Amino acid sequence: MSDPVQVTRVRLAARAAVVLAGVGALALTVAGPATSSPGLPVATSTGAATAQRFVDGGAHPVNLKAPWSREVTRYGAHDLSPYKIAHVRELQYRLKWVGLFKGTPTGYYGPVTRAAVRAFQTRWHMIVTGNANASTWKRLLQRTVRNPQGVPVVCKRAGWHACYDRKFHQVTLWYNGSIRNAWLVRGGAYTMQTRLGTHLVYYRDIDHISGQFGSPMPYSQFFDGGEALHGSRLMMDPFVDHSHGCINMYVEDARQLWNLTYNKRLWVTVYGAWS
């Protein structure tokens, strides 16, 4: 992290210490009931994370602020750890949902995954490369938004909205009524469920540490008590295990959401049956 961002974070934390005492301890736990507070001021870190750009096909940079964007995922890639996610498992899940990947998602981009990508590219009359480039990801993401008819009306109102569907392990990002992206996530366990409702992000910390658990929570955006959208250093598969109430994202995805919204008023809506 660059020194300016670190200084910004430290200054912000100092200014907010009185108001937000205890947030770190609650970050991964379920706090008491809270109501939506439309007038609540938004405390924000002012520095954006370094923008990610991955070369697409060796020539064209991929701007992860563009709608429906992901890093380029190539044959031979592997989701090695929560610190080294190449979005292979997500790619396999989404190919499975369009009927082209028949196996169990493994996080390794081998021949079976490459054949499924080629079939998808052929189906949509794209250049067949066998790699999930920017155009392939865009079409695949658009075709695999889960339960689109179940998205609450509030998500489609003016402004920025991150909407978490607990049943389908999905966060969708909306701006002025148009959907811009979708990510696979996980929420709280049955006894620590992420609370339903709509809230405004009131505090952000680019490299938050949980006061109770001591675990990293990068790119945290707090929206309801101690609940936040943040990158997880534990999650490998969004459909395995749960958090202590927060919405866990892949670190790369949390950074992508941060770069899009860190200086915006962001509403977060949690809906759907627990899963």
Please, could you describe this protein's structure?
The structure is a single chain. The chain is of the alpha+beta class and 275 residues long. The chain has two domains: 3-49 and 149-271, Beta Barrel (L,D-transpeptidase catalytic domain-like), CATH 2.40.440; 73-132, Muramoyl-pentapeptide Carboxypeptidase, domain 1, CATH 1.10.101. The protein is 23% helix and 22% strand. A five-stranded mixed beta sheet has the order 5-4-3-11-6, with helices on one face. Strands 7-8-9-10 form a four-stranded mixed beta sheet. Strand 1 and strand 2 form a beta hairpin. Mean pLDDT is 85; it is low at 1-44.
Any descriptors?
275 residues, L,D-transpeptidase catalytic domain-like, Muramoyl-pentapeptide Carboxypeptidase, domain 1, 2 domains, five-stranded mixed sheet, 11 strands, 22% strand, globular
How many angstroms separate the termini? 35 Å
- The domain count comes to 2
CATH architecture of the largest domain: Beta Barrel
Q: Report the major sheet.
A: 5 strands, mixed
Q: How confident is the prediction overall: mean pLDDT?
A: 85
Q: What Rg do the Cα atoms give?
A: 18 Å
Number of strands: 11
SSE-based structural type: alpha+beta
CATH topology (fold) name of the largest domain? L,D-transpeptidase catalytic domain-like
Give the CATH superfamily of the largest domain: L,D-transpeptidase catalytic domain-like
Q: How large a portion of the residues is in β-strands, by DSSP E?
A: 15-25%
CATH class of the largest domain: Mainly Beta
